[in-house]
């Protein structure tokens, strides 16, 4: 599963979309609108995504944002038995599937309303 940072898709000045994508099917497993992306919020989003597929042991692919390298988040991953792969810094192609999804959503939503 890939976790999107949502910065590419602002809903308003204070809210952004957060999405979890299945890397195999390229389907969005779970998404939410959030004001921040602290490690506790990432944990909640991942728990909700995992609730939809309780028998799956996912591997999370994320960037090296502070919420993904925080000690509490690492503890959550260890306790939940979730593997974590961090992408190479400044190389968004490493997380390309979710990055492309955010780009497509941005084009489809904002392009029709651009004046």
Automatic annotation (TrEMBL):
<dbReference type="InterPro" id="IPR050951">
    <property type="entry name" value="Retrovirus_Pol_polyprotein"/>
</dbReference>
<dbReference type="GO" id="GO:0015074">
    <property type="term" value="P:DNA integration"/>
</dbReference>
<dbReference type="Pfam" id="PF00665">
    <property type="entry name" value="rve"/>
</dbReference>
<protein>
    <recommendedName>
        <fullName>Integrase catalytic domain-containing protein</fullName>
    </recommendedName>
</protein>
<dbReference type="InterPro" id="IPR012337">
    <property type="entry name" value="RNaseH-like_sf"/>
</dbReference>
<dbReference type="GO" id="GO:0003676">
    <property type="term" value="F:nucleic acid binding"/>
</dbReference>
<dbReference type="InterPro" id="IPR036397">
    <property type="entry name" value="RNaseH_sf"/>
</dbReference>
<feature type="domain" description="Integrase catalytic">
    <location>
        <begin position="1"/>
        <end position="115"/>
    </location>
</feature>
<dbReference type="InterPro" id="IPR001584">
    <property type="entry name" value="Integrase_cat-core"/>
</dbReference>
